[in-house]
């Protein structure tokens, strides 16, 4: 057979059939097409239409480009919709915005569209959460305002009263929004400021 005269789809189908029968790719290339395996592989993968996955050549995605021009006339936004033609159930949406790329699989497409349609509501909820968290911390009278650290990995060992330490552990468990390091540092800071 002459692989150059065959359509790529027919060639891939024939090779996949032979591979399923247990023949290896080198054998198929040499015996059936009288060429070496790299030549046959290049024929299938040159236009990026087929890719070998496992022991099978699978047709890759077809791409449809939709280029939108911005007000200054440059092509800043490019959207591609890709659909795999082998089984029809895999789709990707890719948006390139000034060299940033976002890829969404079909299983996440519905969730993504839901997030987009509820964008304002979600942003309001986040703002309310941030405001309420600040109000909650201030209502408890617990605000941690520490200076910027000079050394990130600064450690020290202190001896403490065991009863006071147990009370502190309970207090820290009730205020998990802060680390133990932050709570101890704030307590020491307030003590120093109070008794200067």
SSE diagram, text form:
Blueprint: H1 8-20, H2 25-33, H3 37-45, E1 50-53, E2 56-59, E3 61-68, E4 77-84, E5 91-97, E6 100-104, H4 106-117, H5 119-139, H6 162-174, H7 180-194
Antiparallel strand pairs: 1-2, 3-4, 4-5, 5-6
Structure in a nutshell:
The protein is α+β, with helices and mostly antiparallel strands. It is built from 7 helices and 6 strands. The protein has 3 domains: about 50 residues, no CATH class; about 45 residues; about 70 residues, no CATH class.
Radius of gyration: 32 Å
As residue ranges, the low-confidence spans are 62-98
Class of secondary structure makeup? alpha+beta
Please, what is the oligomeric state? single chain
What is the N-to-C succession of helices and strands? Answer: HHHEEEEEEHHHH
- Strand arrangement within the widest β-sheet reads 3-4-5-6
- End-to-end Cα distance, whole Å, is 95 Å
Q: What share of the residues lie within helices?
A: 40-55%
On the 0 to 100 scale, the average pLDDT is 75
Q: Give the DSSP E fraction (strand runs of 2 or more residues).
A: 15-25%
With helices defined by DSSP (H or I, 4 residues minimum), what is the helix count?
A: 7
Shape: elongated
Q: What about the largest sheet?
A: 4 strands, antiparallel
How many separate domains make up the residues?
3
Got a strand count?
A: 6
